[in-house]
Amino acid sequence: MATNQRIICLFLSQYAMEMLDSSTEGGDSDEEDETSLAVITSMEIERHPRQVGYLNVISLYSDNDFFRHFRITRTTFLYVLSYLQDENFRSEIAFHGGCHPMTIDEVLFINLQYLGNQGAIRLLADKFNRTESSIWKAIGEFCHFMFEKQSDFIKWPSKQEIRAVSRQFRQKAKFPGVVCALDGSHIPFHPKHPNKTPYRNYKKFHSFNVMAAALPNRSFCYVFCGFPGSVHDSTVFQNCSLFQKLDTRCNDFFDPKTNHIIADSAFPLKEWLTTPFKKSSGQPLSQAKKIFNRKLSSTRMVIELIFGDLKNRFKRCTDVNTSIERGVEIVVTCCVLHNICIQQGDLFYGGNINPNDLHCNVNPNPQNVVRDNRAAERKRQLICDSLQTRRPVVAFRRRRV
Fold first, then answer.
1. What is the average pLDDT score of the chain?
2. Phi and psi angles of residue 169, each rounded to the nearest 5 degrees, phi first
3. For the chain, percent helix, then strand, then coil, each to nearest 5?
4. What are the pLDDT digits (tens) for 322-378?
5. What's the rounded Cα separation, in Å, for the pair 73 and 67?
6. How many Cα atoms are found within 13 Å in the side-chain-facing hemisphere of 64?
7. C-alpha triplet 79, 85, 91: angle, nearest 5°
8. Nearest one of 48, 1, 40 to 17, comparing CA atoms
9. Cα 264 to Cα 267: distance, rounded to the nearest angstrom
10. The pTM is what?
């Protein structure tokens, strides 16, 4: 192979010299000379030395170093690896000569390092002794596969499970009937020029929205991702599949008379969706309504914590520099891996992410929010009244951290 490349370069150099001679006789400009030399240079194959044997180095990592590099424990890694093998991930790949195809564990190592860090693709290519295109292909295959399999790990609780879920939520701040906590977060994003405007949010950076619902154990039970950053959370929610299902046949999921989702005041009040009381006509809220809002906020805090967990563990979610299609698959894959970690007891509540980097409630409330309905208002007032008879007002003062 090397001999053939030398012969080709020899012929090209001879051809270029003839072009140089003819251009000199014809009195052409030096630009043609530079072009000819550029042709010769471009045909020479540039060699990039890379690391060799990194997969062997991984086996020598301590458990702490393994987690620092791949953001999950070895136990969780083996579980994901076993799942990929059972689901025949990359089973159609065959070796026909040339470079050996990546093994499943190598693909998983590459993706975990990509999702857990903000490093460049060329660094992964150098570390795993692969080309940059091969790294991109491995990332695309894995994220698309996990995106398609998200329903195996991101599940809405069944009617039998909702009673236990509601009990766990109630232990947080004595707020009754909670099924899950709902909110949206923005993923910083770098769209190409023709599509930049829709993704520019109120805080003047480009992003896309991820709408999610959280359970009390800080796992996702619903994820909807991809709406442009300029769209408000309430509008995103009203266009997602969960809203359409709950608004038409809520009884299939839970009893709206006794259970509900909780969210902040940016969302519309529904019989199945409880939000805080708002000030009306500049009048201050009563003490009872303030207590209701505090308890709801304390219970709802789990959704903001889960966004913090996600962005602390998988740093790629703090800045995605791909197409929107791949960006959505990347974020959903991180949500799936997060749920797997919770399932495996692989908890990570560390990190030092700035609360402002969570990017919740980025856009101001829209003017065309769906009006509250009477049944939802009555239900919210009943919950508010029930909370007053349980504990004295003093018990609901916020603690200083």
1. 86
2. -65, -40
3. 55, 10, 35
4. 999 999 999 999 999 999 999 999 988 666 566 666 556 655 655 444 455 889 999
5. 5
6. 0
7. 155
8. 40
9. 6
10. 0.82
